[in-house]
Amino acid sequence: MSVVDQRSPGADPLPLSSIAHNPLDRLRTGFPALTRGPYLSVCDKAILHDRVRAGVDLFLDRMATGDSTRVDHETYVTASRARFAALTGVTPQEVAVGRNVSDGINAVLWAIDWREGDNAVVALDAEHPNNLYPWLRLKKRGVTLRNIPAPGGCLDHDAMIAALDDRTRVVSCASVSFAPGYWADLGRLGRAARARDVLFLVDGVQSAGILCHDFPAEHIDAFATSTSKGLLGLYGYGFLYVAARWIDRLEPTYLSRPAIALDTDDASATGSYAYRLQPDARRFEVGSYNLAGAYAADASLALLEEAGAERVEARALHVAAALREALSAAGLDPVSRPEGASRAAHIVTAGRLDAGGHGFSDTPWVRAVSARLSEAGVVHTVRRGQLRFATHFFNTEADAAVVRDVLRDWRGAA
Ligand SMILES: Cc1ncc(COP(=O)(O)O)c(C=O)c1O
Fold it and tell me: How far apart are the first and last CA of the chain?
């Protein structure tokens, strides 16, 4: 039996190289990208841990030798689904495996049994484009879009709640916006939605794997994410949570074998033409899975379990606060939290929103500081014209100190 054959989902593909007291500091040694400098860009994309890469290598080895069946590979889908469910306080039966946020949002929106005169509530100015266009298209179904203004990218929770009425079917927001990085009060919106039996749909890609979630406690009805950011996996693999109470009320638009309830897991089996939908969230799954993504997600979610969700969040928020201090010390006003909000997220931005776009800014100091940070090896981004950082458990105060020093030198030279 080869080494490859002996490994199973969740197994440690690599031995731990060192045992330290703090699991976060031990785990961070497995990210090769961190040897190059501070990585403050998980809001753009994940970096791979050695164990995650080993998971993908294992998949590739098995594909190369051809000695694993599809069912063998799919144990990693099942395992990663269960890990995501455990991380977010729900059951695996409420989690569908898909590709990304767009997949999840569209799957839910088009599964609603819309009636002429229904409405949907969203604040498009605060959303990523992938949680914007699906809503514009709803008009084709005779749905009224209640687009709530979000000045400065800030959700107006009161106005969103006030817009809900007896014909509202769905309300949506990002858990944390990609820029300026505001953290929505999900529990508050969720409670208001629940009181009116409105489906609360969350674009959760910026918080998943970084900030603690408990979907039932937050009254979230549906949550879409990919694994390509804080979940520390690959692009093209993601999860869609749909609360049990909604599953039977939603009729998927796309249908293929995984969505159909049969007594076999044989993918080529056909049951009665009077088919039955899966009783669980698998009714939203379409065709074959991104199996490389499943191997990666199983390993990355195991890593996050080991790190501990509360420790991860605490570390990410602590370093984010240090970054805000570094910006303030250089006289650059960080965007913190909207007035009245109790929490600032792990995404840290500075500069005027929409003074530029993806990767460029019209604000001269943003361009200058961004260039200096890049020279110093600090990975960061510019989004909606703002300077942007984000943190995860692998970041430390030392990363914020590097940023502080770069800013001090820039100030000194200016
Ligand atoms: C808030 C938010 N939603 C969605 C996406 C991407 O969507 P998808 O996973 O469909 O590519 C991003 C990517 O940056 C994002 O920040």
Answer: 64
Residue from 45, 105, 175, 206 whose mutation best tests the ligand 1 pocket (most atoms within 8 A of CB): 206
Distance 17 CA to ligand 1 centre (A): 34
Atom of ligand 1 at shortest range from CA of 103: 10
Q: Which atom of ligand 1 is nearest to the CA of 105?
A: 10
Put simply, whether the predicted model's pTM sits higher than 0.90 gets the answer: yes
Which 8-state DSSP code applies to residue 184? P
Name the CATH superfamily, with its identifier, for domain 309-413. Answer: Aspartate Aminotransferase, domain 1 (3.90.1150.10)
Domain with CATH 3.40.640.10 in the chain: 72-303
Residues 47-75: tens digit of each pLDDT: 999 999 999 999 999 999 999 999 999 99
- Checking if the pLDDT of 1 tops 70, the result is no
Q: Specify whether domain 72-303 bears CATH 3.40.640.10.
A: yes
Residues 69-84 have a mean pLDDT of: 97
Give the whole-angstrom CA distance, residue 232 versus residue 46: 5
Which residues, judged by CB distance below 6 Å to any ligand atom, belong to the binding site of ligand 1?
100-102, 128, 130-131, 174, 178, 203, 205-206, 226
Q: Please report the pLDDT score of residue 14 as a whole number.
A: 44
Inter-residue contact 61 to 291 (CB < 8 Å): no
Q: Helix axis angle, 70-88 relative to 50-65, nearest 10°?
A: 160
